[in-house]
Design goal:
homodimer, 316 residues, alpha/beta, Rossmann fold, 6-phosphogluconate dehydrogenase C-terminal fold, 2 domains, eight-stranded mixed beta sheet, 52% helix, globular
Chain lengths: 316, 316
Amino acid sequence: MTGHPKAAVCVLGTGLIGGSVLRAAAAAGYQAWGFNRSESGAQAARADGYDVVSDAEAALRRAAERDALIVVGVPMPALDTVLSDVKSFAPDCVLTDVVSVKAPVAAAVHRHELSAHFVGGHPMAGTSESGWAASSPDLFKNAVWALSVDAGVKADPWTRVARLALDCGSMVVPVLAEEHDRAVARISHLPHVLAEALAIEGAAGGKLALGLAAGSFRDGTRVAATAPDLVRAICEPNAAALLEVLDDTLRVLTAARDSLRDTDSLADLTRAGHDGRTDYEDTRPWAITGIRPGDHDWLAKLAEAGRRGGVLESLD
Amino acid sequence: MTGHPKAAVCVLGTGLIGGSVLRAAAAAGYQAWGFNRSESGAQAARADGYDVVSDAEAALRRAAERDALIVVGVPMPALDTVLSDVKSFAPDCVLTDVVSVKAPVAAAVHRHELSAHFVGGHPMAGTSESGWAASSPDLFKNAVWALSVDAGVKADPWTRVARLALDCGSMVVPVLAEEHDRAVARISHLPHVLAEALAIEGAAGGKLALGLAAGSFRDGTRVAATAPDLVRAICEPNAAALLEVLDDTLRVLTAARDSLRDTDSLADLTRAGHDGRTDYEDTRPWAITGIRPGDHDWLAKLAEAGRRGGVLESLD
């Protein structure tokens, strides 16, 4: 059944994101099963009627037998262990991941000699909750799902992974791993860092400040409710890109502080910030058409389209 | 009809906040009318059935005749003009305001020799929209409404303003002007500054970054959609308190940057940020009872209760 688009999906790690992939894939008609390292997590999934075990070898041998698409959904610190198991028990399966950062995952996949069938991925969705209990088959509906078009990616695996993302209800953004990592430093990792800082400053104001807090503080600190270890697992592997954007943020905030101190004015900050938010609100994805996986130069063409805000809404 | 709790309310400035006070007061059974400097704004309110004129003198002479409670709802830059009109046409009315920052408003009121019947106020509610069109009678439902208990505030005006806030559906937080201003620098003005910075950094990533942006960026930049002039009018008058908290934020972010650069770790930031957000989520107002306006030491007692997270839910 090689190549059959809805053959089978094996999800490794059934937390918020992996669990949601498992649910969404099953809802879309895939044969889907999973592995979760903690037996209690696996049990929770089984209690909801999903086929999840805490035995990686069993899940992966079945993946090898059925030519399943393997989806790695564990946080970065657990990646090496899981890839080592994939190498041992299902080295020829198509492999993707839903881990935040892309270049370090690709490097790990390379170290484990699993690059041949690998396509890195990152669905841009989440909540401040985590674990199977927070997972949902609708998490990826109308979201964007970044998919690597780096040199060496092959058309067949790419198509299979893209089809899963589309079947989960997402639009596919083709992107180079390094460009992805620099982009998410700005729109996913920096929001985490600033939310943590805002939560710290609010709490330093004591009960009076926290009691007066309204919508702007609530929304601005929402993602600070995420478990600290999970934030670290998301942000720290992207340190190089995050450091660059953090340095720039410190420059922007220092300039605003100096302007407020020296001229009583936040004019530049508020104008540029409003422009940035307006750009964001005006951002509309446009449908990439006419580039088929496997066509001449398809990887470079898709990368260029993604860079300009294009998305794949179908594979036809 | 002096002292009758629902006698009359005159709102000066019928934008988002003032307009919502007018709607909420009318819905609660007050005789309520308003003034708006722009005739088009006044007309919009009249089209919705509210009694709003663009003639300050007319609105204020009526306030003087009917012993109305005057609510100043104009942004800081328009404050002096409006207070000058109040001094000319209705100097003996009870006066409150719904402007963000409290010490500068109190100073302006003092300059206009209107302190005798003044009680500064600040309902902690808003949206990123502005103007009459965005106003709502429900904006203050279940919100907190800060009310000055500074030295010199008299019991009768205080009771009247507190009753209006309660009738708008809010809980009243008694607070000293300076403590209020330091608190809102942390939970209202800093969120604006950080949202602007985040919007700037996201937009600098171009279409790819903005196209990949999801919930954390959307929520983290929400208030950057506020008109720049309005953000400036809210934040700049609180420059002293905001500078203090901005300096501290720069220290926190610089420490996080250094830690990420030198040890690949965001452990301290994420732990402290999560603790802060948890403190916020665990914050529950408790009802102040047994302190009646006019009692011995009532101002100091209310200030101390507010400092510890207490709110007034009724005046009985």
